[in-house]
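Explain my protein.
***
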Amino acid sequence: METEPDNSLPPSIHPKTLKDWGEWLSQKEMPIFSGTVQRVSAAVHDDASGALELARAVMLDPALSARVLKLANSIYYNPARQSVGTLTKAIILLGANSIQELALTCAFIESIQSAQNRAAAARVIADCLHAAVQAKSLAILAHDPSPEEVFLAALLYNIGHVAFWCFQDQVGARIDELVASGMTAEKAERDVLGFELRDLGAWLTRNWKFKGLIEETFTGKGASPLRVQIVRKSHLLAQLAQSGQFDPKAAVACLMPLEAGLRKSATELLPIVQDNMQAAARLAAQFGATDAALYLSQAGQHRAVLTEESETAPPPGEERRLRLAQIQQDISNLLSDRFELNVLFEIILEAIQRGLPMDRTLFALYNRERTELREKTSVGWPVGAERPAIRIPAGASCANLFTAVMEGSGSQWVRPADDPQWRRLFTSEIRAALGMHECCLTPLTVNNRPIGLIYADRSVGRAPLDQETFGHFRHLTQQANIGLKLYQLQPAK
């Protein structure tokens, strides 16, 4: 029988200090999560960025975008079941805090599911999600202004334990041996590692630049003692459920310190807590943490949930058509009232990128002198500050792909491999910025004068374009041009 490879570090090169462990876990084992944390958190806490930057931060990871949108349409996050087709609409409908919660939870679970220790990963995901659901529910009862922040604080309170136990089995075995001999877990951690795993959690959250309640839960200091208490008690409730035999008396004793803040007795809170256990199991299933869902709930109940979801889900092709129809309806609804031009273009670019789908989408505008087209926003290019903004010469003497489209009468489906005339228009500047790929382009006009264009291709996956895709692209970019005309007609604010 084949054995799985041992991916753990040899004893001689194990990290030595708290900083060493934190950097190793951030850079080698959980880079997806740490990178997403910093992008999403920066967008949420930047007052100047708003919904558009948060949507763009999530869209940098197409798989994450798809999972966030799916969950944004779930009963847990969207009980009114208002159809959500784009991240921008999801942020407007659900709020930036909810999308932050969704995105970071998805990234957190994705990182852990690549763990070496699958059994440990299932347990820690289950416990973290269980505690987070309990904490958010109790925060809502306390009329907390941001229950999503309480959810994230509870989700990440054991991040040091999660990172260590999922990705390190050799050193963990030595800690287990000491605990089995009667030593406390904290003392065993200090003896083997030189620090406690709670300290590792605090280091990781500082390094990932978490502020507010997440930071307060580790320090115990801050202006929100009830919120910190809710987070910590929620983890105790999750621990009580670990054995599968939830003890109501122990749960009541755990909840008693929260009675004054929640204005409910512990016995009144008990049925809510028990319902939250099942809610956590369903949420784990929706996040794709199947093993964790089984850990939280009985196998038969869990399978029933999965069966119900699979029976109601449309086939992939039909799902795509329904999503596009909903997006186009959303854009039409937006155009029927006062709207922000930036929001309109963000929704249209996201619709092109995810709805068609495309690998790369670019929105470019003329500079003031009309000598070049400059990237205004784009989706699908690799993340990195080192990439300069795309700038394509567009003066009267510049004959290239962009100027040809700008001088044309509408959308173009360009196939350079089949047409030498188009191939000649992929100048050195175009090839340096975009390569030479089959693509779709539409000029944007104001008062019949071109001001910019939208470009999209499938240059990464190399999937061929077709007439249906081009038709949807043309329709979406026509809505962009309609939006420009309507925006001019809006009365000044």
About this structure: Confidence is low (pLDDT under 50) at residues 1-12, 298-314. The two ends are 73 Å apart (CA to CA).
